[in-house]
């Protein structure tokens, strides 16, 4: 019988529990999937804790997965039973062995892409495309700052930006993570626990600052990231691993004519044409080897709580993927 991780109350990882569920036949414009790999993201942790109250309870969390099409509903074209697809959705429901999904969200996977890789790279890779090519268009010769450069999105950002010809300054929390960041294309790595990253950025850039600062840390780094900007520099806050950013006085941007953005991926992939264009760019870079990603570490779907604990405690050294029992 189909199973899913049900969230019935906000709290710690222990509130994630497996339950049997009924999965209907697909309706008009829908497909039914047997999921083979499910991505685990910090977004899921924010939803589970109640920091993001964007999932109506009780509900099934999770925003990305990959699997096989089992059936297609009326009016669906371009997909057939047996097709391998991946998706990212703001409507949740990914922590499940089976599900019904709007066909407009499904992306046919390239022939050689592992479903476990797709489940761990789609959200992060589409986010990287959005950040580097749309929110702030990184060009050759620019210098940018990437916080958490050894993290999942950070590694993709650094590789992609370096491929575009930018000089990447990354921050990392340990010498081991610094090596990961360098391997991902960082020309300079700042050990933020030992060094003042603002002073180091100013030293590296000769006092000018960076064209863009990509900050997924939030509370602990926001003010410093703003200080690191060059005149007309752009601060892109796209996460809050250390907590939400306090209320901000917009006139602070005027000192150097800076700009500030808080983008959400789902607004950028709402149109099918945009989703396909962004996915094509990601798939092409992965295929060429210009951007590298690994399938990640796997856990059974029933151990979603453990996956959240590993992620939040920073013990996960690779992306985490949940596998329904039959695929373990």
TrEMBL record:
GO cellular component, one term: cytosol
Pfam families in the cross-refs: ADH_N (PF08240), ADH_zinc_N (PF00107)
Keyword field contains NADP: yes
SUPFAM superfamilies recorded: GroES-like (SSF50129), NAD(P)-binding Rossmann-fold domains (SSF51735)
InterPro entries from the UniProt entry: ADH-like_C, ADH-like_N, ER, GroES-like_sf, NAD(P)-bd_dom_sf, QOR-like
UniProt superkingdom: Bacteria
One Gene Ontology term of the molecular function aspect: quinone reductase (NADPH) activity
UniProt keyword Cytoplasm present: no
Domain Enoyl reductase (ER) span(s) in chain numbering: 11-322
Record key words, sorted: NADP, Oxidoreductase
Protein name in the entry: Quinone oxidoreductase
The organism of origin for this protein: Neoroseomonas soli
């Amino acid at each position: 019988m189909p199973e899913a991780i049900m969230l019935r109350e906000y709290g710690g990882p222990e509130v994630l529990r497996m339950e049997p569920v009924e999965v209907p036949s697909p309706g008009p414009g829908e497909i039914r999937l047997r999921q083979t790999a499910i991505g685990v993201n910090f977004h899921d942790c924010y939803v589970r804790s109640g920091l993001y109250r964007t999932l109506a309870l009780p509900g099934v969390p999770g925003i990305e997965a990959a699997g096989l099409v089992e059936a297609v509903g009326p009016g669906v074209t371009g997909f057939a039973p047996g097709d391998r697809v991946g998706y990212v959705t703001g409507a949740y429901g990914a922590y499940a062995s089976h599900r019904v999904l709007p066909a407009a969200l499904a992306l046919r996977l390239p022939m050689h892409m592992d479903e476990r890789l797709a489940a761990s790279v789609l959200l992060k890779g589409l986010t990287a495309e959005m950040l580097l090519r749309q929110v702030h268009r990184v060009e050759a010769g620019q210098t940018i700052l990437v916080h958490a450069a050894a993290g999942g999105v950070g590694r993709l950002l650094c590789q992609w930006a370096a491929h575009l010809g930018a000089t990447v300054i990354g921050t990392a929390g340990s010498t081991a993570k610094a090596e990961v960041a360098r391997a991902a294309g960082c020309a300079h790595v700042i050990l933020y626990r030992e060094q003042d990253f603002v002073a180091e950025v100013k030293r590296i850039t000769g006092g000018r600052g960076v064209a863009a600062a990509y900050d997924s840390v939030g509370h602990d780094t926001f003010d410093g990231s703003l200080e690191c900007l060059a005149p007309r520099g752009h601060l892109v806050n796209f996460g809050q691993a250390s907590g939400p950013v306090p209320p901000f006085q917009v006139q602070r941007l005027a000192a150097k004519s800076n700009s500030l953005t808080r983008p959400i991926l789902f607004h950028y992939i709402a149109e099918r044409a945009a989703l396909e264009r962004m996915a094509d760019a990601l798939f092409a870079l992965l295929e060429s080897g210009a951007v590298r990603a690994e399938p990640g570490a796997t856990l059974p779907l029933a151990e979603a709580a453990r996956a959240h604990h590993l992620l939040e405690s920073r013990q996960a050294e690779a992306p985490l993927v949940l596998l329904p029992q039959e695929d373990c």
